[in-house]
Write the structure tokens for this entry.
Amino acid sequence: MPHLFSKSWSVNLLCTICLAYPSCKPNDKTQKVDLTIASTALKSGCYQLIINEDTALMKMNVSGDRVSGDLNYNRKEKDRNTGTFSGTVLKDTLDVMYSFMSEGIVSHRQIRLLHINDNFAEGYGELFVSGDTAFFKHPYALQFETNHLFKNIKCP
């Protein structure tokens, strides 16, 4: 029976350690990986969404991490929503409260817009309503409509 600390057992253990842990010091081929999220700087301007005969126009003003503006939805065969929004810029996402008039009633709704290549995708998710205000139940688990974007346009 071989002894636990025999020469061949020690050599096998040493080879296993060397293969499993090649080196603890960095070599010249090591590259640093930048894990920061790159996003294009947000800028004030106008954005238009067109889905068949439904349209929306957003005029946005950006000042640091604050954003505000006008947002009007014109949906075919539905009442028009006309209102304003204000909120914050969270990296590549706008988190705003939209106050609008529809059918003569003022309502408020949370909106999240993802900034994609100088355009915006609107976020959708489950809502809960408190009084005249609708909030996202899970604001960090939204689905963004990337097939229909608010596209940057020249302001009318």
About this structure: Residues 1-39 have pLDDT under 50 and may be disordered. The two ends are 90 Å apart (CA to CA).
